[in-house]
Known about the structure:
Blueprint: H1 3-28, H2 42-45
Amino acid sequence: MPTLFRFLFICALIAGVIYGTMVALVTFVNPMERDVTIRIPSERVNKPQ
């Protein structure tokens, strides 16, 4: 097999593994929902004029 075809085959194989991993993560992993509270200092909201 010439070098270019071998290189393209390896790149396609790596891309396929990455794509398969992403599909597996989307299918089998469920994100947990939770509330997020971020406190903003009043100095940043009410700037002195």
